[in-house]
Amino acid sequence: MTLSKVNSSAATLTKNRTEGSVVPASGMCVTCVDGCVGMCEIGKSAYRGHEVIYPQPFGVITTAAEKAYPVDYSHFNIMGTAVGAHGIAEDSDRAIFPAVDLEVALGHDRKIRFRYPWLIPGIGSTNIAKNNWEGIAIGSALAGTGLTIGENVVGMDPETVLRNGKVVDTVDLKNRVRLYKDHVRDGLGAVVVQSNVEDTRLGAHEYAIEKLGVEIVEMKWGQGAKDIGGEVKIRDLKKAQLLYDRGYIVLPNPHDPNVIHAFEKGAFKEFERHSRVGMVTEEGFATRVEELRRAGAKYVFLKTGAYRPADLARAVKFASKYRLDLLTVDGAGGGTGMSPWRMMNEWGVPPVELHALLYNYAKDLADRGEYLPAIAVAGGFTFEDQIFKGLAMGAPYVKLVGMARSPIAAAMVGKTIGRGIDEGQLPVYVERFGSTKDEIFVTASELRKELGNEAFEKIPTGALGLYTYYERLAQGLRQLMAGSRKFACSYIAREDLCALTREAAAISGINWVMDVDREEAERILHA
Above 90 in pLDDT, residue 231? Predict the structure, then answer.
């Protein structure tokens, strides 16, 4: 069974000439003919070379792997029950799904409170993030969930002011933080600022803490999409030179006269900006955590990706030993920016396997009485059933699920609908609900009542899109939890899942469906 799709993809704008007859292993047409103009990935690489490594068109897409992993979260089902209730009275008039409490608290003093058990675990300097930030930030804040400002935002901002190699003022980061903070309600939710190698060198965290009042900072060891530093495409020569001068890897060298000439003649249209890979050591990690706390950080998080199991063990142990407040673990396959396409498909530990290892490592430390921070899992989560499964797989240690692509999608759709309203050109499948945002967005009347007319009118439709998507997830999750008789997130347990295959059971430690309740069922039958 072939798990990967090779040599043609919507992500790289490529396809096979003989789409119905393709060699599974290579992805090549069964008959590769002399005279073909090169529609497949091999063919396109023959004239565009390294450009075809990355998903396209840059700046207006998010991407995720097409690889079909042997085990994924669809290989588990949620277990309901007809008896009892956890977290509420065993009363049919009280144990109703709207009564399910989704709020979670985390941090060393449990003062970080989210209305819902999820967060956006890091979207940074890519165009797709910047162009939709207004909707993402405001929608997240109104919903009371977490939002992480990802890597390279400071370094990518042409208006960032540096003094002696350190940032002293910004426009983009300042705006991103403000948009979130200005719309927080009831003290729920939190904005997090992430940092990679270049950000650390520029002093981005210290600036965010001192100048912007940011309380939560996150160190980053990578993500589920790639094992190298972040990359984006730059279409402006001056900006490419600026980023090169700030210490980024920019290819080709934008100061080389021959490169400048080729760019101006149109031989290529984009520069690549790359970040460096980190070099993790325990000594360096401990030093940086202490520096951040001395700088005034009230909470320190760590985000890590789909690295090999030994690196996951390091992440869990370091987060425990240095008493971090949240550890986020991102499984292979996703990407919100410009991750190399083949890397996204073929690199890293898939989500179920990674999260199963994470549970084992966390339990090992907890059983020995060692401190554990709250844990978040990420890797392709989009809907309420997957959120439930992610929380249950890692229970009781996993408190949050991280999502990025789906919230961006919701914000983009909301923004697009808003543009259609303004232009009077709504597609028929939207127009059937109405022609105003109050008619189209099902949460609009509730928000208008809560915020007041003046404040509501200032809310962009991108934020309404995200807020409304989150409202759907919340109601769906409450229904699933009520069916499992779990009326608060803290009651969700691994026993609320069953594995549908023996392979899924062996990997996860979750009972195979035919073994669930075996002993209890025998007791009931033999009573």
Answer: no
